[in-house]
Amino acid sequence: MLLLPAAASAAPVTVEAESLATGSGGTFADTGASSGRALRIWSNGAATGTLQSRATRRISVRARAESCDGAPRMVVSVAGKVVLEQTVSASAWTEYAADVSLTDGAHALEIRFTNDFNRTGCDWNLLVDRVLATSVAIKRPGESDGTCNGGPSAGTFWPEYALGLASRATG
Ligand SMILES: [Ca+2]
Ligand SMILES: [Ca+2]
For the chain, N or C: smaller number of CB within 10 Å? Predict the structure, then answer.
């Protein structure tokens, strides 16, 4: 009998923000962005599309802000459920991520800008490059992969393993 490990990884899935549909923004060229373009959401509203999930366990959104006296708020939903709610204060491209657990297949993806602010010389806009869905949630260093090799259950801290990782990392 052949024992296969549980599906732990699949190729990451990328959704370019500039491919999303929105009535509240527009795309622009950016040499620092994935695929050379990004989406500027300039007023309150959503950009929507489809995420093809393959064992998705983590969503990472690459975003940045045009801001002053505060910062735009980004709300990311998958299949109608909020998975990430984040103030985007960085003016350089930054990853904002959250652990999720999605069933395989197509899910509605929505990125919403909720707090536009505009006065003379100051306008908040939410800039989004892409959404990356990966299959393995990022573990903190030292967390066990599970009870094989005599370790504790998955997710608990295992100092000996962490020390082994650290010594191997510096060796
Ligand atoms: Ca604006
Ligand atoms: Ca892009």
Answer: N
Tokens of 108: 């509605």
For the entire predicted model, the pTM comes to 0.77
Least distant ligand from the CA of 42: 1
Q: Give residue 52 CA to ligand 2 midpoint distance, Å.
A: 17
Nearest ligand, measured from the Cα of 25: 1
Determine the 3-state secondary structure of 136 from DSSP: coil
User: Which CATH architecture best describes the domain 13-134?
Assistant: Sandwich (2.60)
**Over the stretch 105-150, which tens digit does the pLDDT of each residue have?**
999 999 999 999 999 999 999 999 999 999 986 555 555 555 555 5
Q: Residue ranges of the domains in the chain?
A: 13-134, 139-171
Q: Which ligand is nearest to the CA of 28?
A: 2
Distance of CA 169 to the CA centre of its chain: 27
What pLDDT, in 10s, does the model give residues 63-110? 999 999 999 999 999 999 999 999 999 999 999 999 999 999 999 999
Amino acid present at 1 = M
Angstrom distance (rounded) from CA 8 to CA 135:
7
CB-CB contact of 69 with 59 (8 Å): no
